[in-house]
Amino acid sequence: MNPFWSMSTGSVRKRSDTEEKTLSGELRTSPLRGSAKKQLPSIPKNAVPITKPASPATSSQSTNGTHASYGPFYLEYSLLAEFTLVVKQKLPGVYVQPSYRSALMWFGVIFIRHGLYQDGVFKFTVYIPDNYPDGDCPRLVFDLPVFHPLVDPLSGELDVKRAFAKWRRNHNHIWQVLMYARRVFYKIDTTSPLNPEAAVLYEKDVQLFKSKVVDSVKLCSSHLFDQPKIEDPYAIIFSPWNPAIHDEAREKMLTQKKKPEDQHCKSMHVSGLSWVKPGSVQPFSKEEKTMPT
């Protein structure tokens, strides 16, 4: 037998029955470290979310699988991420601004630059559900009802559910709703319309349809400078051209637009000496100058 092994085994003192019972009792009563359940820290008393649910019942329930008290904060984070995606998409002719009073309401405007609705400027409001992104799809309502097969002639609401029958979390985003709202003015769809008159005219009398579209565009343009229906500091407001205010802003925008062109011209500018001797095609050749002696 290995002498080291025999020494180690012989040096171990046998525990008494009393010690065995004491140790076993301690092991039974001591809590396991791995069994401790992780808990979220308590929310500070002064922390109040900007976005408040419309109904008190929503706040008492668990939102998005998160602790109920964290639901509003998670909602604000989701909406902030959605707005960041909208900015990154850079949708042509579409501008949105979240409301100051509630992040669940966004103000927007669409500029139509060609097609049947050319020169159209349509202001709208996006209404986002309280339980976003697990609820229904956001609603988009135009300030003035636009003559369009997919726009309700009374309420001005766009048929968004046509494209988003079921809102899928982490798959559908608000920027897609905005892109859809822009696309309906370039590609007319007349199936199951909210405005049957517009759908019938588009299919049977295009000229009369165009005439009514022009009237609708002019009507929206005539109310472009009206005060917003909802009082909000961040509501989109148009004002007539004022040279004292707008000239300076226009110059700044044009200057920023010219900067990339100036940098491109600078990069194209050739500086330095030519390393090709006149009358020669050999690179790095230059005239040899004799030094005076």
Automatic annotation (TrEMBL):
Residues 1-11 have a biased composition (Polar residues). Transmembrane segments: none annotated. It is a peripheral membrane protein. GO terms for cellular component: cytoplasm; plasma membrane. SUPFAM superfamilies: UBC-like. One of its GO terms (biological process) is protein transport. Keywords: Apoptosis, Cell membrane, Cytoplasm, Membrane, Protein transport, Transport. Residues 74-222 form the UBC core domain. The keyword Protein transport applies. CDD domains: UEV_AKTIP (cd23814). Residues 14-23 have a biased composition (Basic and acidic residues). Residues 1-64 are annotated as: Disordered. Coiled coil: none annotated. This is AKTIP protein.
